[in-house]
TrEMBL record:
One of its GO terms (biological process) is cyclic threonylcarbamoyladenosine biosynthetic process. This is THIF-type NAD/FAD binding fold domain-containing protein. Residues 103-359 form the THIF-type NAD/FAD binding fold domain. It comes from Mollisia scopiformis (Conifer needle endophyte fungus). It is found in: Mitochondrion outer membrane.
Amino acid sequence: MASWFQRATSSTHAQFAATAIVSGAVVAGAILGYQHVRRVERTEDLKRSIPALGAGDEGKLTDWGAASPQPTMSKEDERSAMLAERAQKGDYDDELILEQLARNRVFLTDAGLQKLRSAFIIVVGCGGVGSHCTAALARSGVSRIRLIDFDQVTLSSLNRHAVATLADVGTPKVTCLRKRLQQITPWVHFDLCNELFAPSAADRLLGPWEGRKPDFIIDAIDNIDSKVALLDYCYKNNLPVISSMGAGCKSDPTRIFIGDISASTDDPLSRSTRRRLRALGIASGIPVVYSTEKPGPGKAQLLPLPEEEFQKGSVGDLGVLPDFRVRILPVLGTMPAVFGYAVANHVILKISGYPSEYLPAKGREKMYDGILAQLQGSEEKLARATTPGEDAQGLKLAISANDVGYVVEEIFRGKSAISGVSTRLALCRWRKPSGSTIDLSVEGQKTSRVLLRDLVCMTKEEATVHEREVIQGGKTPEALYSKEIVDLVEARINEELGYEKYR
């Protein structure tokens, strides 16, 4: 062995090889060591640059659990704000930012992360869903976020808010989010709008920031009027938007989906939003996060207001704003977080260009066209019977395929009102009309007088019997159907009368 070692060490080639290996190891070690030392130095420099935490009393809660009306930023909040101010001016090591975003960086690639870091996103609604969504976006690298919300943090907010603490109770939700998140991502620029979203302010609230249009708008509103106004504005102005439907009364995270608003079901907020949008001519084209969980025995539900509340006067006076919610919605604290993270995940993938495929909803447009054609034939036949001597050929209907979809899906929940069957559907008049069904007020044009409120959803077979017995015969619906069916149809028709003001 000794002689072999002597021969190997005496070889010139072996000596060169050994020297190269040792030199390479030394250089690699030096480079890695230097990088480690530099990273440690940058981190320590950052820590030293943060103003020292001085002595002073923390903000105290009032007797009713709200933050003091006096400015009560703690010393830690103050130094975080000072650091954030510097960071947003560029006085923050970019290598440290990339280190903090390292996991996102390797997942999305440098190009994808750069798109995310340069994005401008608007979050409307900063409660349970909106706060978790905003926190996820800031932690993932989004550098410009506009927050819109008029509300304040309450004690009951703390079961579902992403970052609020007791010290934040009584403060605006937008301020709370900025204050807490700048302690995590000080380089993020926040634009705060402490106000309720309203159509009259849409151009300003959803407008550009320093010349840049929003890359995405997030709807996390739980007030139906504001939600519909926001989605209508975004749709008609070609602004990318995603909407969170109701997380209240939900408990099963495995039933949460992302899809088109036309596919969202089994959620009162989703149904009301979808119905109002259809009335505005918007049937699809808006992605939403929704739950397919159905209500059931023992599950939480929104109960009607007690009678004594109505006796006190106008129920609307109980809300924080006119026409705003006046009841406490049962919410499991985990579910808004799941909805918020699902929304944030969608936005991150879309902006960064990461591949994403969601289960598509089955289109029913052909079915609506078929139902409309069937209704056209029924109305022509009825017109000939109610207006003798008048040719009903070419009769026009003031109803479109979208209107058919609205009646089928929103008024009758996609099922026959008679049997509950969801296939081979048709629309027909519920009651026999009195007088002529043709409108001849426009010269040269014959139009059916049928309105959406006149129609009921049935199977084709049921519609054939109904037209024979009720529309062409002498029976009334009460004579043909049970009281439960008649009450159901009448309730749905009366419900539609309340929605007609939005059309």
